[in-house]
Give the backbone structure.
Amino acid sequence: EAGVAQSPRYKIIEKRQSVAFWCNPISGHATLYWYQQILGQGPKLLIQFQNNGVVDDSQLPKDRFSAERLKGVDSTLKIQPAKLEDSAVYLCASSSPQVGQQAYEQYFGPGTRLTVT
Amino acid sequence: QKEVEQNSGPLSVPEGAIASLNCTYSDRGSQSFFWYRQYSGKSPELIMFIYSNGDKEDGRFTAQLNKASQYVSLLIRDSQPSDSATYLCAVINWNTGFQKLVFGTGTRLLVSP
C-alpha cells in the first residue's frame, strides 16, 4: 500500500511571501491531518478533516493559514503571508476510522521542511 | 502545565542496556497512548500503543501504563545504536469526538556502541 505523499519536500521563501503544500493520503483514509513541527518540539495539530469537512481547526492561525480538502482526497495547506516563526516541518497524516479505537494509527507523510528568511 | 510532558534528554545508554522513557499527561480522560519514534529528518512512525493499565510487550519494546498516576513509559531492552532517535509520546481522549493526537516534545535517546 502506498504511503502518504507530500510535496514539495523542501521550500525556502522570504517573509511575507506565500507558500502552499500538497498532501495525498493513503487510499481510502477518510481522516486527514496537518501538523506543524517546530525544531525540538512535538508535532502540533493544525487542522483535521473528515472526508472534505473540517473537524478541528482550533490551532490553525486563520489570519494567515488556510487549508482545503476538495473531493475528500488530496489536501492543500497555504500560508499567506509567511512569518519567520512559520519555519518548521509541515507533516500530513491520515487514518482510517473504520479500524476502531483499539487499532487506531495515524500514518505520517515525509513532511515539507519550510524555511522562512 | 503542558498536556503531555516528556524529558527532552538526551538520554544516553550503552549498547545492550535498557532504555527507560517516561511520559506524563494531564487529561484524565485520555484513553489511548502511543509511542512514536522519529529519526532525525524523518517523520514519526508508530512503534507501540497501549490503552489498558499494565504492561504491553512487543519484541524489545514494553509500554507501561498507569492511569491513576497519569503516567506512561516505554522500555527498550538490549538497546542498539539504531534505536538512537527521538521518542514521542502521544495521547488521545476519544470522548472529545475528535481523533486528536496530542504529542509531547519528545525524548532524544542516544545509544552508544
Q: What stands out?
A: The mean pLDDT of chain A is 92. Chain A touches chain B at residues 31, 33, 40-45, 48, 55-56, 91, 95, 97, 101-102, 104-106, 108-111 (CB under 8 Å). The CA atoms of residues 11 and 21 of chain A lie 9 Å apart.
